[in-house]
Amino acid sequence: MTRPRLVIGNWKMNPATLEEAVVLAHDRRATPHEGVGLGVAPPSIALPAVAVALRGSDVRVFAQDVHWAEKGAYTGQVAASMLRGLAFGTIVGHSEVRRDQGDDDARVAAKAGAAFRAGLHVIFCLGESLAERKRGETDAVLARQVRDGIGAIDRAALGDAGTLALAYEPIWAIGTGEAATGAQASAAVARLRSELTRQGLDGDAIPILYGGSVTGGNASEFARAEGVDGALVGGASLKQDEFAEIVAAFR
C-alpha cells in the first residue's frame, strides 16, 4: 500500500519573534518537496502570521497542541474551533506536553477527538521512555498508548485514515541528539500498525512518522526504514539547509 510521505517541522517555542517566524515560513515555502507533504507547527501566537505567509502554498500549518473543550474557563488554552481558517491540523500527545501539562492517554484522546470534530487533521504522538525501553516494555507502552489513546476516540469523530497520522517519538531521543536506529523505528512502527489493526482501524493505511533527533545526517536512514512514512522534526526544522536535506531524503 502506498501511503503519503510527510515531513512536519515542529518549531516548539521558537523562533524568538513573529518577524523571524514569518521569515522561516517563507523559507519553508521555498523548500523543494515534490512527492512529500510538507508542514510546519509554529507556536500558537505565530499561527496567524505564518498562515498568512503560507497562504496559496501547499505547505500545511499545524498547531502544536489543542484543548479538549470547545470553550470555557481554560486560561491560556486554544480550542480546536479557534484554529479553523488558520491551521490544517494539530499535534497532540507530544511527550513535552505530556510531561509539562500532565497529559495522560485519556486527555490526549479527548484532544484528538475535539480536533477531528472541528475538521482538523491530527498528528498523534506516542513513544516510550528510556527506563521503559531498558525494562523491555516498549511494545506494551505503545500498545497501551494506541489502545487507551486512539482506541478511546469516538469512531464517528475519528474520520478516515486520511485525517490521522501517528508520530513515533521515543522520549529518550527527543532533543538529546541520540536518535533511534532505523531498525528500532521499524520495529516500533510494526507494533503500532498491529495495535491499530487490533483496534479496528486500517493500520496499513495510516501514515506513521519518526521523530526524535532527526537530522540531515540521519534522515536517509529513517527514509529507508520499513514502515516509516516521514518525520516530525524538532530543532533541525529551524535550519533551512538541514531541513531541506531531511525533506529531500523522503522524496
In short:
37% of the residues lie in helices and 15% in strands. It contains 10 helices and 8 strands. The longest helix is centred in the last third of the chain and has 17 residues, at 182-198.
For the structure shown, list the relevant keywords.
251 residues, alpha/beta, eight-stranded parallel β-barrel, 10 helices, 15% strand
What does this structure look like?
This protein has one domain: Alpha-Beta Barrel (TIM Barrel), CATH 3.20.20.70. It contains 10 helices and 8 strands. The protein has helices at residues 18-29, 47-53, 95-101, 105-117, 130-134, 138-148, 155-158, 182-198, 219-224, 240-249; strands at 6-10, 37-41, 60-63, 89-92, 121-126, 164-168, 208-211, 230-233. It has an 8-stranded parallel beta barrel with strand order 1-2-3-4-5-6-7-8, surrounded by 5 helices. α9 links the parallel β7 (208-211) and β8 (230-233). α6 (138-148) packs across α8 (182-198). The longest helix has 17 residues, at 182-198. It is globular and about 45 Å long.
Biggest beta sheet summary:
8 strands, parallel, barrel
Average residue-wise pLDDT: 95
User: Total domains, how many?
Assistant: 1
N to C succession of SSEs? EHEHEEHHEHHHEHEHEH
Count every beta strand, where a strand is a DSSP E run of 2 or more residues.
Answer: 8
Query: For the terminal residues, how far apart are their CA atoms?
Result: 17 Å
Classify the beta-strand content into a percent band. Answer: 5-15%
CATH topology: TIM Barrel
CATH class: Alpha Beta
Strand order of the largest sheet: 1-2-3-4-5-6-7-8
Can you tell me the residue ranges where pLDDT is under 50 for at least 5 consecutive residues?
Answer: none
The general outline is globular
The Rg value, from CA coordinates, equals 17 Å
Structural class of the helices, strands and pairings? alpha/beta
CATH architectural label: Alpha-Beta Barrel
Helix content bin: 25-40%
The fourth-level CATH homologous superfamily is Aldolase class I
- How many H/I helical runs? 10
